[in-house]
Amino acid sequence: MTSVHTIDSVQHAESTPDLPQPYLELGLADDEYARIRDILGRRPTEAELAMYSVMWSEHCSYKSSKAHLRYFGETTTDEMRAKMLAGIGENAGVVDIGDGWAVTFKAESHNHPSYVEPYQGAATGVGGIVRDIMAMGARPLAVLDSLRFGPADAPDTRRVLPGVVAGIGGYGNCLGLPNIGGEVVFGPTYVGNPLVNALCVGAMRAEDLHLAHATGAGNKVILFGARTGLDGIGGVSVLASETFSGDESAGGRKKLPSVQVGDPFTEKVLIECCLELFGRGLVVGIQDLGGAGLSCATSELASAGDGGMHVELDRVPLRANGMTPAEILSSESQERMCAVVKPSDVDDFMAVCAKWDVTATEIGEVTDGERLVINWHGETVVDVPPRTVAHQGPVYQRPVARPSTQDDLRADTTQALWRPSDASDLEGTLVRMVAAPNLASRRWVTEQYDRYVRGNTVLAQPADTGMIRIDEETGRGVALATDCNGRYCELDPYVGAQLALAESYRNVAVSGAKPIAVTNCLNFGSPTDPGVMWQFSEAVRGLADGCRELGIPVTGGNVSFYNQTGDTAILPTPVVGVLGVIDDVRRRIPIGIGAEAGETLLLLGDTRDELDGSEWAHVVHDHLGGRPPRVDLAREKLLCEIMIAGSRDGMISAAHDLSDGGLAQALVESCLIGQTGARVILDPDMDFFVQLFSESAGRVLVAVPRTEEPRFTEMCTARGLPWRKTGVVDPESGALDIQDVASFPLDVLRTAWEGTLPALFD
Amino acid sequence: MKIGVITFPGSLDDVDAARAVRYAGAEPVALWHADQDLHEVHAVIVPGGFSYGDYLRCGAIARFAPVMTSVLDAARGGMPVLGICNGFQILCEAGLLPGALVRNSRLHFVCRDQWLRVENTHTAWSSRYERSAELLVPLKSGEGGYVADRSILDELEGEGRVVFRYVGKNPNGSLRDIAGISSPNGRVVGMMPHPEHAIDALTGPTDDGLGMFYSVLDSLVAA
Amino acid sequence: MARVVVDVMPKPEILDPQGQAVAGALPRLGFQGVTEVRQGKHFELEVDDSVDDATLAKIAESFLANPVIEDWAVRRVEL
Amino acid sequence: MARVVVDVMPKPEILDPQGQAVAGALPRLGFQGVTEVRQGKHFELEVDDSVDDATLAKIAESFLANPVIEDWAVRRVEL
Ligand SMILES: Nc1ncnc2c1ncn2[C@@H]1O[C@H](COP(=O)(O)OP(=O)(O)O)[C@@H](O)[C@H]1O
Ligand SMILES: [Mg+2]
Q: Which end of chain D is more exposed for a tag (fewer CB within 10 A), N or C?
């Protein structure tokens, strides 16, 4: 089957210029195909066509989003850039956190695969993002996962959620990466289109930053890790069924599943192997193999370097028989990395791989030329300028139009909806809300994740933010939170994205860490829908403007389009991840109250009548309409400064930010997590319902030791942050007592809060 | 005092075990799975993780590692050995401790802070505790259900070789709530929960686990 | 009453890390000559005589196996 | 070359939570009449002709199964 005439070589392509090619089936448009012919001055070979088609896909080329994403760069000031060692465009952003440490973090979506095969889809999502972090030269330290599912009681959710959770746990636990946070959100638009976004954070000494560059002619290209199989080449198997190969078995591959199976053990060993390689200085450049496999790794390495690259494709160790060059180049087999290594270091490199029992193969070398040349059994099957594959894909200005329904949506506020007012209605509403799937305890999920491994986890679920210690000597650490409320984004994508940023930022700040950088995972419907593109562009602008106002840069991110079932797009879901740094993790502020006797509860920030898009409107009235809460980033910044000062001076013993479910939810969680009761007195001059369930942004509930109360409140007053004494911690009562509403025994609240997910999914 | 901590490919909690040894004031020594040499350590910890991926059965492949031959010899000679989680599974697979660990009864991996009761304070690894003391220690495993023949269970109970028992709701279906057991001479202990993750209230629920590492130092000094 | 066996195996083109781990370990344990191993699941079901083959196939296909990545085979065995 | 199948099952007296979970789920999915389910492992090995039955038994007993909790059966199948 490797006999000469079956190979579509460059030579063969030149001699058969008019041969019809299945570019449409591979997802390329007519003009895109024409451009490839133009670039090459001939028709592409089968292998080249495979490369261009995957690299120019939406997923790899960002062709619909690029024009908008530029705005992130345009709004990043020099000051914001100061601590950024690598930014958008690299595998993952890197920031300097001080003491010589650099931290890298990034999120990625694995939505569609997780719908098709929940366990493996989610597992390989974790695997992929971890390799991105390794490609920066960092040791992966922790993961987070941000999840969206259909309604909690939908049959589809029952199928998808347990598999996704088990997959994330199964893979992450086996890698020895603590899971320190994330989200689980249920909503009707995610039926048939769950969102599985995984985030990984890693650290390295700043001088060890490895960027994906193939520099230095003569340096060797080494592929290491798992063997290459037929995984995830669903689209490209079209080629195998086409004319050239003449191979019967290949023709039979047409309906290959594009599902990949993960092997976390191989990845774990790969991590240790990479770290030893980095540690010994044996790597010039490195790239992970993710989407688009070798096509991506070779073209990106080559185009980011200063020369070309030559690859002998038949040296790639294979797992399946009779794979064609196009298939090998597009395979998305997991757990593989590609390194550029000095010739003099190759033996040492191979020895380290042998120690870890990792398969490693020299597949080519960096060349002087400017072309990426790939041979297959002596014939050239690829000869392209690598930049045209990796970076010069098409860029679309998709039509953008604000949907005509948007005005009606915004006019349909919650004002007309029935609101509870007397004590017993409020009491019933509170218990019902606490047990609602979106507000109930996430323990059923998080118990399946190892949060302890490696012994550096300082805060993890339940907490507003995950926090890990980076440096055992100094106690320096980082905090990470992810957030997004898709309902707010539906009502106003610009404000919604800023609210996601504000919440994530606040979640980091309430732990006492200082937010320093942002990543995102932008999940939207189809880019061919002008309304979706409007949501997208508004969200990007909102996020970028918000970051500029807060003074923290977006260092990277991910775009996932085509999240829709039929014509119905998901709610716009721009998940925002914020990274913070804390000089000494011993000063972290936990959620649970009651650590010290006689704490006072203070509510910081302003409460307004803001219930449009709220969890209450969703749970009680199944209503979505109106305007999202107001966002005030200057206030968020002030709040953050107060929290950091409070942490530094030991003035705060616990804190919890207010978000979904409002004050009621924050009070319940603070009591249940702290296993301590409290007595609360609401403001008699304001509607109780609004006080308990409004979702106004920029608010935090803090517990302050009585001795610190004057100092803390004076600081707030002096700096112009509104505060209100809301109650006291009451270790004796075993209840959350809200004066003039009800006294809620903690065991009643716990049953309501913790019972929901087990009842649904056990 | 030197305490060896084995690293298999796929070991995860080896760094944590080494840290616990350090916190207790001893010197951790890294032992490599492929190396028979125990480097003159005075005791050995077989740590948690997923050795070789644990795809076949937890611990099934690791027990054949060269280093385990030396550990088995040393254990028979009285060297204290502690198997934690995957380490416990490996010691059972290797026949150093009786019984086996099976899939949790609720089928899910479980990570939670778990109360344990100390049932035997005469082993090399538990002498620092008061009898019936209750410890709060992380449990994190998918295959933590301890099973053995009834006759073996009776023997373990009769000889006082149940070292730790779960308190409260049984988290994984372990027979007789067994969380940890010892060899007849009390030198080898295997347990599913992770004392090495309870050495500092900053990163674990408590520091209740430190006692195990102090215990073994006591036993080595006494020996 | 009948006993039914359902074997579920990873599809040939799908990665089988479990089988690979076994195959890789055997030579280290001193067993030569095993060139390939694949690992799947084996179910033994006790079923009423009312359950017909079509139902069994449906159980295997829709529940015991994930047809995206696994093949399955059902057979009745004599007791 | 020969193909060898090894089935490994939890011993009858050992609790089998996986099998139980399957048995419990079937009626909920609308499948009646399955009274018991046990779940084990199924291995398919490709072995050289040099590998005799005694060796296969040893592989099953000392490695693929844990005799404390599992039974095993080896059979050669025609290709
Ligand atoms: N999918 C998940 N993976 C890991 N942790 C999660 C996940 N979902 C929720 N959590 C954790 O559970 C806790 C409660 O979540 P949530 O109420 O969404 O927090 P918040 O409202 O502060 O963002 C947090 O510690 C969060 O990180
Ligand atoms: Mg929060």
A: C
Q: Do C21 and B64 touch (CB under 8 A)?
A: no
Kindly report the pTM of this predicted structure.
0.93
- CB–CB of A451 and B111 under 8 A? yes
CB-based burial of residue B65 (10 Å sphere; 0-12 exposed, 13-18 middle, 19+ buried)?
Answer: buried
The CATH number of the domain where C20 resides is what? 3.30.1280.10
Helix (H) or strand (E) holding A173: helix A155-175
Q: How far apart are CA A427 and CA A431, in angstroms?
A: 7
Could you state, in order of their start, the residue ranges of all structural domains in chain B? 2-222
CATH code of the domain occupying B2-222: 3.40.50.880
- Residue A694 pLDDT greater than 70, yes or no: yes
Q: Flag whether pLDDT at A248 surpasses 70.
A: no
Per-chain mean pLDDT for chain B: 96
Asked if the model's pLDDT at residue A253 lies above 60, the reply is no
* b/e code A676-711 from CB counts within 10 Å (16+ = b): bbbbbebeeeeebbbbbbbbbbbbbbbbbbeebbee
Question: How many secondary structure helices (H) and strands (E) does chain C include?
Answer: 2, 3
* B115 pLDDT higher than 60: yes
pLDDT at C78: 75
Q: Determine phi and psi for A299, rounding to 5 degrees.
A: -70, -35
Q: Decide: B90 and B46 in contact? Cβ < 8 Å.
A: yes
* Pocket lined around ligand 1, Cβ cut-off 6 Å: A 145, 147, 179, 181-184, 442, 445-446, 449, 461-464, 483, 507, 659-660
Contacts of A247 by beta carbon, 8 Å cutoff, 6+ apart:
A1, A6, A240, A322, A324
Contact: D17, B93; criterion CB under 8 Å: no
For residue A406, give the amino acid letter.
Q
Domains in chain D, number: 1
DSSP A279-294: HTT--SEEEE-BTBHH
This model of the complex carries an ipTM of 0.91
Structure tokens at C68: 């995206």
pLDDT in tens, C23-55: 999 998 889 999 999 999 999 999 998 899 999
Contact predicate A721/A639, CB 8 Å: yes
Mean pLDDT of the region A703-728: 96
Using CB atoms and an 8 Å cut-off, which of residues 139-198 of chain B contact chain A? 140, 142, 194, 196-197
Residues of chain A contacting B199 with CB distance shorter than 8 Å:
455
Mean pLDDT of chain C: 91
From chain C, pick out residues whose CB is under 8 angstroms from the CB of B53: 17-18, 21
CA A208 to chain centre: 24
CA-proximal residue: ligand 1, atom 23 (nearest): A464
Residue A240 has pLDDT above 80, yes or no: no
Residue A233: its pLDDT value, please? 75
Residue of A110, A210, A623, A656 marked active site: A110
pLDDT at position A1? 37
Asked whether C49 and B76 are in contact (CB, 8 A), the reply is no
Contact A446, A657 (CB under 8 A): no
Beta bridge partners of C7: C42, C73
pLDDT tens track for A94-106:
999 999 999 999 9
- Could you report the per-residue pLDDT of D12-49, keeping only the tens digit for each? 888 888 899 899 889 988 899 999 999 999 999 999 99
Find the domain containing D21 and state its range. 2-77
CA dist B20 and B213 (Å) reads 7
Reply yes or no on whether the pLDDT at A139 is more than 70. yes
Amino acid of residue A17: P
Q: Tokens 């972290």 belong to which residue?
A: A588
Distances (CA, A) of A228 to A6, A239, A316, A647, B96: 21, 18, 7, 50, 40
* Cα–Cα distance list, A77 to A83, A87, A229, A410, A501 (Å): 11, 13, 45, 34, 18
Residues on chain C touching B52 (C-beta within 8 angstroms): 21, 25
